[in-house]
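2024-03-11 09:14:02 INFO receiving multi-entity request
2024-03-11 09:14:02 INFO entity count = two
2024-03-11 09:14:03 INFO echoing inputs for audit
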Amino acid sequence: MSDDVRTDIAEAARSFGITPEDYMLPARHLIRIVDQDGKVLSTEEQGAEPGHDYPVPADEDLLEAYRRLVAGRRINDQNSALVRQGRMAVYPSSHGQEACQVAAAACLGEGDWLFPTYRDTVAVISRGVDPVEAMTIFRGDWHGGFDPRQHKVGIQSTPLTTQLLHAVGVAHAARLRGEDTVVVALCGDGATSEGDFHEALNFAAVFHLPVIFFVQNNQYAISVPLARQTVAPSLAHKAVGYGMAGERVDGNDLVALLAVLERGVRLVRGGAGPLLVEAHTYRIQAHTNADDATRYREDAEVQEWLAKDPVKRMRTYLTDRGLLTEELQSRYEQEAEDIAAALREGMNRESTPDPQDLFAHVYSVPTPQLAEQSAMLAEELSREEAS
Amino acid sequence: MSTTQNTDAGPRPGSAQTGPDTGEITVAVDAARESTTRAGGAGIPQPRPESPAAPVPAGPVTMAKALNAALADALSADAGVVVFGEDVGTLGGVFRITDGLAARFGTDRCFDTPLAESGIAGMSVGMAINGMRPVIEMQFDAFAYPAFEQIASHIAKMSNRTRGALPMPIVIRIPYAGGIGGVEHHCDSSEAYYAHTPGLKVVTPATVTDAYLLLRAAIDSDDPIVFMEPKKLYFSKDRVDLDALREQYESGASAGAGPRAALESGGAAVARTGTDATLIAYGPSVPTALAAAAAAAEEGRSLEVVDVRTIVPFDDATVSESVRRTGRAVVISEESGFASVASEIAARVQERCFHSLAAPVLRVTGFDIPYPAPKLEHHFLPGVDRILDAVDDLQWED
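2024-03-11 09:21:47 INFO inference complete, emitting structure
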């Protein structure tokens, strides 16, 4: 195989002093730097192997990521509350997955792109999108509330996995123009069964594109467990079939996530080809408010994962290292409260979308048929107003 | 069925049994060449009234060549245009529509992808997001179906979902329809799927000149356009000066009534004038309709032929004007008739022209069956006799 292996992979492997096969295969164990009690693991216990070792991010990066983690948890819980109060149609919460959400945005530079799913609102906000704009999709005003080009964040994709191909296209266009854009494309474990997962990974590998496919394996696709999606040794192992590298990481360990993803961004920006990263995490809440998770999983399992909570773990770790003071903690909590208050205020504000917007952006210029239909609706509305 | 080209457009002996993809495709190309040569021999398509007068005597040009020239000229005119799909690079496409483009413009501008239609369409979305104007090729009508989710859920809706922030200037080229003796899955008339999807425009040329001009305008449009190429007309010929066409298009000389306007508000064309009834057709059915009109003329009946050209946006004005004048209409298309584009056209005509109509609007379409095997396709396709029978049924005695 070594004779046929692509130069970029071979070079990446050589830089780590390992074989291309070892470069592409995920490390034998999950990469974990901080355990569920917030204690730093010894190097041997971190799951790293030669070529799969990860520098711990700088202190200020860890604190900044934690600040966003605290905010992310608050955003999730505020949004779920707003759904219960009837202010929003639906909210797929990433409660329990916030470390993945924060890391997905934190690893990117300003010119890079993020392609999220419907569950990745916290990642979208972490990337700098205004929380109220991000929530427009769930309030029901419109399908999307922010300008994707302004923030270099794709619209939150509901059709599963389709956004991975958009990430590939953005990366390819950037490459044709000679830009060093990195694209992170998010999806879940269920999405790896879709055909577009295969097509996107294969296209990215064949075109040697700087895309990181970041799979949040939260164990369930609505009700269907991972065992019904795949019997592969891990989702990360799928990478080798495409000729790209795969990584497995503890998705509730923000330190490990930042270490793996930041290293990944450096690698793919440097021309090592695409990367598949699988994060093991858990969807603590139901799929959405319309779902009843007690029908398909035991409470004991949820309790087990609650003990691995990413926020608590990171707080203990940073406190033990002396980086997080009580004062900082209070400040972060206050900032999170401010965001939650802005969300409440924004979502409670009455919004009345203009019915004529229905026809505005179907085509660059409304067709004669849409102009007719728009006039018909206008007449209906004026009659309603008159009566 | 004595005059239509469809009756004898069957495959060469044994062609339907060809196994591997490459062989099958070669047969399809050859069959297209054969059948359209015959169509050309029947004097189809006719030069139309609004065709520009060529400044110098121009040689015969095939529709395939005109499409190729349109792609090359668009690649020259705009550095954001990229052409990609299956076999479009080195080979130049199974129908040779992209012939020579990779060599001339480089493999960054015209390239082969892995064999995956959803991947091609999905990648085009990302490239459009990142400022490019992708022109993608689906190799055959029925092989475009894996791309349908990307087309319907993203390409068609992205501009709307983002309130115009992410327009999708994508052209999806699809060779479509039958009449070439192609094996199954190579002859579908799939236009209704796209026409039914808001956000897409659906365009189909029937002449060499329109093939050039409409494809140029489609590539320049900020809206996503499904550009449906009647594969049986790929090797039909017309005397066209491609340099003059390029100049005409790029100078915007035909602005207003030109191809860009056609894509904005609909651009049907009267392909043959007549007074007694209107035949409404598009793409592969236009030459058949013209042949029917010629045959009817010999019997003293004057049929007008309207070439729809832009299925979406539909040109209600031109179609209605014609039908109000003639008082009778037959809609012709190769697709299965139930819930078809032809059905939509018939409904629109009756809504708009009811008081001018002397008879119900009739449809002549394919049957409501899967596209038949090559030896039976001539029974399926609307031919001259079936069209003339429909015309005879337009209540002339009342």
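2024-03-11 09:21:48 INFO post-check: Residues 1-55 of chain B have pLDDT under 50 and may be disordered.
2024-03-11 09:21:48 INFO post-check: DSSP finds 15 helices and 14 strands in chain B.
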